[in-house]
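Co-fold these.
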Amino acid sequence: DGGITQSPKYLFRKEGQNVTLSCEQNLNHDAMYWYRQDPGQGLRLIYYSQIVNDFQKGDIAEGYSVSREKKESFPLTVTSAQKNPTAFYLCASSEGRLVYEQYFGPGTRLTVT
Amino acid sequence: EDKVVQSPLSLVVHEGDTVTLNCSYEVTNFRSLLWYKQEKKAPTFLFMLTSSGIEKKSGRLSSILDKKELFSILNITATQTGDSAVYLCAGAGSYQLTFGKGTKLSVIP
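Predicted complex below.
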């Protein structure tokens, strides 16, 4: 089955701890994206990557970091510098940088107390 | 700064009604407009519109883009309870999508 997987589904952390969210795709897509969604809000872009070993900041990158060492994987680290980390995080991928139909994973709900 | 505005933000209708969801956009280097449906978790793709005036249709859903007036509409006819969801509109610029806040549609029996 082709698709995007995110794990875990729910994550709870104490304030001050870094946490890494996993995103894996087996669609052979070049581009991958991380979004954050807050209640009543649309999706806001955190980081994106168009090819392996390259990534760019989105609109709200502060307090987050990413890596793209493999085509299939694009993990997101929420650092202690992120002031408001509790949110729903969605990973997406698309065939290439000029193909805008993005496919989404099931999301990770992060709660920081 | 790119901006996408959807209206209304929420809507409650009865089964069988027809609804129209609106999306206006200001996106630098605009390439296309996308609609997604989000039920509980992952948004699922509905339409991508690139050309003005050409309606895209899938079953009871249809959508059209007006590049002169910078807006798009999503129509759903004969609504069913399964249409209850948040409908997201996104404008595609050079390398990224800018999403609106979504329209929450509730269809009651």
